[in-house]
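Thread amino acids onto this structure.
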């Protein structure tokens, strides 16, 4: 698949085949995605791979509970628009993906968010090139329970920056129409 085709096939996937993703394939994607640029070549990223559907459901339930609690305390909370679906017991924020990869970075490092976001983009493109689908699940980053953090191996000095669902897509949706680029000025 050439690079243009990879870009066209990289869509947000929310429906996955009931097929496990081999850990060695996830390792390959991580290794390739680590070619991403980072501030001063700091490479601050770390990874948590979860190939356990029960644990993925537990992470989903934890995130839903914490977001709903924030909405109850603040009706203007930015994620309020998701309140209805978050109350649905069967809704899994990771769309029942067979694998979730949490990209984390040091809480105290100023460039962590930008660096890990660049890496997440590489990860999603690498996965698409290998026939896998991903979706960045912002709702999946709301893990607060210390026992769950310990269970998944999230150190206190790390923050989840990019929770990514990963799996074999049932289909690749068409790309939504893109607006033309807004070029403010051409200086020659």
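Threaded sequence (188 positions):
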């Amino acid at each position: 698949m050439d690079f243009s085709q990879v870009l066209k096939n990289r869509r947000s996937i929310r429906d996955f085949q009931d097929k496990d993703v081999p850990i060695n394939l996830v390792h390959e994607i991580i290794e390739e995605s680590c070619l991403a640029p980072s501030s001063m070549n700091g490479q601050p990223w770390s990874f948590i791979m979860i190939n356990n559907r029960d644990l993925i459901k537990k992470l989903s339930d934890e995130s839903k509970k914490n977001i709903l609690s924030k909405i109850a305390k603040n009706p203007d909370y930015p994620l309020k628009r998701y309140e209805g679906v978050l109350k649905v017991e069967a809704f899994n924020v990771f769309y029942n993906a067979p694998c979730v990869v949490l990209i984390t970075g040091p809480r105290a490092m100023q460039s962590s968010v930008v660096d890990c976001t660049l890496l997440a983009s590489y990860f999603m493109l690498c996965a698409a090139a290998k026939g896998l689908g991903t979706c960045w699940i912002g709702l999946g980053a709301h893990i607060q329970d210390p026992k769950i953090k310990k269970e998944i191996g999230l150190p206190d000095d790390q923050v989840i920056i990019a929770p990514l669902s990963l799996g074999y897509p049932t289909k690749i949706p068409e790309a939504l129409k893109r607006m033309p680029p807004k070029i403010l000025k051409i200086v020659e």
